[in-house]
Amino acid sequence: MKKCRKIIALLLVVMLLSSSFATSASAVLVGGKTPYVPVDKDVIPTIIVPGLFQSETKLYDENGNVALDANGNEYEMPFFMDTTIEIAGAALEEALIPLLTMIGKQEDKEQKAAHAVADVLSETLLGKQKLDETGHFINDIRATYYGGSFDTLSQHDQETIFDHFPLEYFVKHAGGDKLFVFSYPSLDNMIDIATRLDEFVQSVKEQTGYDKVNIVPISQGGSVFNALMQMYDEQGRSLADDFNKIVFAVPALDGSTLVGEILEFGLMDDDKELYKEMLPSLVGEDLGYLINVVLRFLPNADVQNLLDIVFETFISEYAGYSTALWALCPSGNYPGARENYLMAEGMEKIREQTDWFYQAQLNSDQHILEAVEDGVQVFDIVDYNVPLLRIVDSWNIPSDGIIQIDSTSMGAYGIANNVELPADYVPTHSNCTNPDEHDHTDPHNLIDICTGLLPETTFYFFEQSHESSASNDVFMKLACSIIMDSNFTSVHSYPDVFPQFNGARKTKGLMNDIIKAQNLDMTNVSADDQAELEMAIEQAMTMLENTVIDSDEEAAAKTRFYNIYDRIKAIENGEIEPENPTGEKENTAYFDFSYALMDLFYILSELFFILFGGNGFSDL
Hints:
single chain, 620 residues, alpha/beta, two-stranded antiparallel sheet, 11 strands
């Protein structure tokens, strides 16, 4: 299995770098004519600190202009890769002959294929974001700077922000003049990012005339805020000098186990997990099973060496110089990962900075408690009971699919996803301020939230995944309501509207489609269909108004809406006749080759595993 571990690690790094809190098309539908909780007449300005690759980032040329690729288009984030033709050309030129030689001779004694593949993959993915030995970009890479409030930004910038952060509800009720978005390149130098955030906070205070702001660190933004808190501490400053409320949203306050275990231990060493779970879950079932089949044609020992070199090149020459990426390594994994990758000659300045951030992680809880003591209100919104990607040994620890709950919740305890706490469970401690009066019991009995740092101000969304958090309209309404209402002080403030434990929901696409449905051409649509669409929209809107999530209610509303919405779209497109009650096409005979190929790859992958285990054909 070791032969395939490193390629999975490479794919994981790519996936983690591409993942974010959520990205989707924005909608103007905010749900509800009135707020769910009261809104202050004068809402305090709020700063959003984004997660991985949620800041629009561009590559600039030597003249300070946005760099263009061979086709004359701007390089696209997050990787600023060359055109497909250029990538294919480089791969053919550098790696094709060594790979064919390895396959033909069934050996790669001089490691030519390994180094060729490593160089092509690493340069393709991170070549333009390569960093120097101080952790700074070699090329000119900058995030779009939003110096003013949301109201002052261009339409493009506003749409970009809403694509990542569905904060229409906040803008509608608090005003765009109260919303500010900090931006940064996600692989940049962490100390520089935190320094710029400090400057941004002071700028917002100066612009608005307020002596304090609210701040919402999201995902990787939690790591950035850790660095900021450490700076405040070293400078003898109090967070209370600048912040009114801190609202963490699925924060990486202690990194991600996915990153930490890969850097310290590598991937789980299990053939069954590779061929049945890892690749299909990482790159999709169709491509994953195809790769499973292709791997069988490569010689065992040489592929193992190839993937070792690919992984080592990717980390030691590229990603390992990003101190922002190192900030996603949990404190528990850092000493071992440090020994693996940060002790080489030339890594001294990187190691100095990552050691500093490691201390910031260790001090995080204390910094937060000191802020609370000084009068800052600190909230946390957490997702849980979604397994991590099945590529590390600890894949089933309580998490949101990307970040373990210990990191996002500041210490809440659980055994594993879908594993209840035993009847004889005795907590090591409790941070509840009034255990005789407060009930913080997880209705699913999976986690003890009282072991978390702030059980009185931490909300939990059951089976909500990290990446789709922003697609949960209740999640977003909760965050906005905490910010907009000064009387929202704890989980006890509005338990009937926003209970401490809630469920998963993904309604962003539904809200967009409702808007589209209201603009459909109804010329050829019957009165009955029009009436059904109106009732389906009403049912969906009623569901969206319910902030206590009911999965059955959501499913029923979606099913009814999409049944009639899809039918009317088909009528509008001339695919079915208006009088056709079923919406069936007259001729439905067709063969989908893509699904047939995917099924074939799946069957071959399963068959090869049964027959050969993890071996390649040459090992037989």
